[in-house]
Amino acid sequence: MSAEPPAGGRRPLLRQRWTELAYFHWPYEPADVQRLLPSGVSVDVHEGAAWIGLIPFEMRDVALGPTPPLPWLGRFIEINVRTYVVDPTGRRAVWFFSLDVPRAAIVAMARTVFALPYCWAKASHLREGDRHRYQMTRRWPRGPHASADLAFTVGESIPDAEVSDLDHFLTARWALTTKRRNQLLYGQVRHPRWPLHRVGDVRIDQDLIQSAGLPSPAGPPRSLYSPGVEVRVAPFQVVPGREIP
Question: Less CB within 10 Å around the terminal CB: N or C of the chain?
Answer without folding.
Answer: C
